[in-house]
Write a sequence for this structure.
């Protein structure tokens, strides 16, 4: 493969898909895609001079000459859907941004439930796609949202009809495999009608040895009194770049419980947003970030309280080791009409090394007067008295640090809705802590 | 078993222990009593190896070996156990996980095979009865959200599980109601035997109604100002610390 060097701080759009915009063959969707493609040309690639990117230098991404994944690489990959046994028969697999039907397995869905890839949905459920696609997207002039919108070729489409409870978790697996500079743009659309109840797990995995790029976008529309549990596992390869956007729109009494766990990627930028449009709705956007070596993980969130009586919860925990960096910027908007808002936000950072960096910034913008907003942030090392307590029981220095780090992380893990994933993450945390302490 | 010679210790540059001499032989129970702030907790933490306290003079021998250079975890694996006056809460770490890891690290130290989780579960359940604790405490995070009494029982449960040679019990009785005090004291009585030493730190005499000390020492301002048999505790209870200490000062004149 020839390597094209782009001008510094300019993303090389021309190598992507030979500069073309992939077509979906659905008028409204294609119109939005080409609009995004045009808009993208007018939006500069973000640099650290932008307030929103102050601590996150993405020059390495600008320098890459990325190309979209092809079908050949797709065929070489298989995935065992029993990896998460709870979702054995409700798993969609994507490889390098494209749908892999051989590895996917979706069976015995309740009446009316749709779990499929976006391309398929465009063909078979075009009306549903047209009324919901891009409706919750409130990222304006955001380079990576526009990039995803213009360039996506596939993703997941989930539809849960009213009064339907889908017990099994829906597992969406995104694998990046193969050469250096592979770029993928998964686009997910999740629509839930009133009184529905369901769980979605997005999992991103990839090789450690290739610098690939994932620019993902997940859009969630939650109808009245619907309940969604959402887990997002970012387990990318350690050289990967991953930029994600998640936006959710909640109608009256809707309830979203979303947990993001980030372990991989060299640069990870995650923007998560909940827009509470209906009274009585609730959003949880919790996060756990484990970074080491030269990893950088940046979470920007917006809890947008637009109407009265909504509640939100955000517990964001990070563990920073080696020379890694964690950034957290948590905005809470309470609009003028959003009386009786109850918003909770906490960011706790555990610093295991001297060289690690933590930037944390809560940002509250409150325009209503009868609200309850609590927020707090801590940055620190392990607690001396906890250390002494464990050592006085005979645990050596290494086990003590491991167990305390583990304890710090489990608070988020314990809330996850799928047991096998919890178990898997407990192990991943153990690996992280042992890896961190042995170097 | 434990021999302390002219021990001086300071924290943040302030001397707190000012020349302690104490010897505990296997099978003996020594009570250390004294007013608040006299240095009781400091003494037990220094023996256990708390890194914030610096020994500036004197020695601590455990089974004939000077343990000054040993870290807290090494001392623990030799068989020294501290039941904390204020047990520390550790969210996210389950009680059973802590105890299993601690127990196995002590076994490894002695060249014994580790116990697997199932075996350990059986072992721990036997020990629960000693302090009449509900098995549900095993799955809960260490001391997290426990009441004062539950925390103290949990310390004694760990004592029973880890089965050390020397137990340092720092005000295990404080904050316990009468029933809990009985359970905890009986638990300690079941655990102690002729091969073990106990240092029982207490502010009040009442726990000594259940656990009979062989010796009682009165600690005041970092020094042992009086030592005697179990009757000294009764005298302290009747006369108060001030009188005992004054009479000591009087004798010294
Ligand atoms: N970490 C510390 N830093 C400063 N002073 C301390 C510290 N620990 C104990 N002290 C002081 O040492 C003295 C003895 O405390 P302590 O050993 O806790 O007494 P006791 O257990 O008998 O009540 C007190 O005056 C206390 O304030
Ligand atoms: Mg004390």
């Amino acid at each position: 493969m020839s390597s094209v060097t782009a001008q510094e701080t300019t993303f090389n759009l021309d190598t992507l898909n030979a500069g073309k915009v992939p077509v979906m063959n659905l008028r409204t969707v294609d119109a939005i895609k080409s609009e995004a493609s045009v808009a993208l040309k007018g939006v500069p690639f973000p640099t650290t001079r932008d307030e929103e990117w102050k601590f996150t230098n993405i020059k390495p991404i600008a320098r890459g000459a990325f190309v979209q994944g092809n079908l050949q690489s797709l065929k070489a990959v298989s995935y065992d859907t029993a990896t998460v046994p709870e979702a054995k028969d409700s798993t969609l697999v994507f490889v390098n941004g494209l749908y892999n039907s051989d590895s996917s397995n979706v069976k015995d869905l309740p009446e009316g439930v749709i779990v499929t890839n976006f391309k398929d949905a465009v063909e078979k459920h075009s009306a549903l796609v047209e009324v919901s696609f891009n409706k919750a997207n409130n990222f304006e002039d955001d380079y990576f949202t526009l990039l995803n919108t213009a360039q996506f070729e596939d993703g997941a489409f989930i539809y849960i009809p009213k009064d339907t409870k889908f017990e099994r978790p829906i597992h969406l697996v995104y694998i990046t495999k193969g050469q250096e500079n592979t770029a993928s743009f998964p686009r997910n659309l999740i629509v839930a009608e009133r009184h529905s109840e369901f769980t979605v797990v997005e999992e991103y995995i990839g090789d450690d040895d290739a610098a690939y790029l994932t620019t993902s976008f997940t859009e969630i529309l939650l109808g009245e009194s619907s309940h969604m549990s959402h887990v997002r596992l970012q387990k990318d390869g350690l050289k990967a770049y991953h930029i994600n956007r998640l936006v959710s729109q909640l109608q009256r009494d809707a309830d979203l419980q979303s947990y993001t766990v980030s372990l991989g990627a060299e640069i990870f930028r995650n923007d998560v947003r909940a827009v509470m449009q209906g009274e009585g709705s609730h959003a949880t956007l919790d996060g756990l970030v484990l970074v080491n070596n030269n990893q950088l993980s940046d979470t920007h969130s917006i809890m947008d309280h637009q109407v009265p009586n909504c509640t939100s919860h955000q517990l964001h925990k990070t563990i920073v080791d080696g020379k890694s960096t964690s950034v957290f910027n948590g905005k809470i908007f309470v609009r003028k009409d959003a009386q009786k808002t109850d918003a909770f936000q906490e960011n706790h950072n555990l610093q295991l090394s001297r060289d690690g960096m933590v930037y944390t910034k809560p940002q509250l913008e409150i325009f209503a007067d009868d609200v309850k907003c609590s927020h707090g942030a801590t940055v620190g090392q392990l607690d001396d008295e906890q250390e002494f307590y464990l050592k006085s029981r005979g645990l050596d220095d290494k086990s003590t640090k491991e167990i305390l780090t583990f304890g710090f992380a489990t608070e988020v893990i314990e809330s996850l809705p799928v047991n096998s994933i919890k178990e898997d993450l407990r192990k991943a945390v153990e690996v992280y802590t042992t890896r961190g302490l042995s170097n | 078993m434990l021999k302390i010679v002219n021990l001086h210790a300071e924290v943040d540059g302030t001397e707190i222990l000012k020349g302690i001499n104490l010897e505990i032989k296997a099978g003996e129970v020594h009570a250390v009593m004294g007013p608040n702030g006299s240095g009781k907790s400091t003494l037990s933490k220094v023996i256990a190896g708390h890194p914030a306290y610096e020994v500036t003079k004197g020695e601590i021998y455990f089974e004939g070996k000077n343990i000054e250079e040993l870290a807290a975890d090494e001392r623990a694996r030799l068989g020294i156990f501290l039941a904390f006056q204020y047990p520390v809460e550790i969210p996210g770490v389950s009680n059973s996980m802590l105890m299993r890891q601690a127990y196995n690290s002590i076994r490894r130290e002695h060249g014994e095979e580790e116990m697997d989780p199932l075996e350990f579960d059986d072992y721990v359940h036997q020990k629960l009865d000693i302090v009449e604790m509900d098995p549900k405490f095993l799955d809960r995070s260490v001391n997290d959200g426990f009441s004062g009494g539950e925390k103290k029982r949990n310390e004694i449960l760990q004592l029973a599980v880890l089965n050390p040679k020397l137990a340092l019990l720092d005000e295990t009785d404080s904050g316990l109601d009468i029933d809990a005090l009985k359970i905890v004291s009986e638990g300690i009585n079941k655990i102690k035997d002729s091969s073990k030493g106990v240092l029982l730190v207490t502010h009040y005499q009442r726990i000594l109604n259940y656990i009979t000390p062989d010796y009682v020492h009165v600690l005041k301002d970092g020094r042992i100002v009086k030592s005697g048999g179990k009757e000294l505790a009764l005298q302290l209870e009747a006369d108060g610390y001030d009188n005992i200490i004054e009479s000591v000062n009087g004798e010294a004149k």
